[in-house]
Fold:
Amino acid sequence: MKIWVDADACPGVIKEILFKASKRTGVAMTLVANHPMPVPQLKWINLLQVESGFDVADNEIVKRLEPGDLVITGDIPLAAEVIDAGGHALNPRGERYTKENIKQRLNMRDFMDSLRSSGVDTGGPGAMNQTDRREFANQLDRFLQQHG
Structure:
């Protein structure tokens, strides 16, 4: 089992939680991003830098993903592809995407997207808070205990 991180949009505080978990457990992790970023100097934590472009990082994650791997992403279409490929997906706020909830999340995303394109200001998610960080850390720990 490996952890893949959709790193361009992943908040720094979430990356720090991931680094600590990987250091503690020795689980291999690859951050996929289209620009350089610092990662701990541990042999099992890597940065895969891809070209800039729409969905380049997402496509690289899906291409390299193996069944059972965990992907950290807030990108719902990417999460759907991960689940279809037999992987697991967790968003930076601690919500697990599953076969049971991903279709609903995709439908809601598409609905909100159509509202935005028709000029409706739908706002966005609030700033990450301590509860979000704690929920993410708890879900990650639970996942690693079950699958690590």
About this structure: The radius of gyration is 15 Å. The longest strand covers residues 29-33.
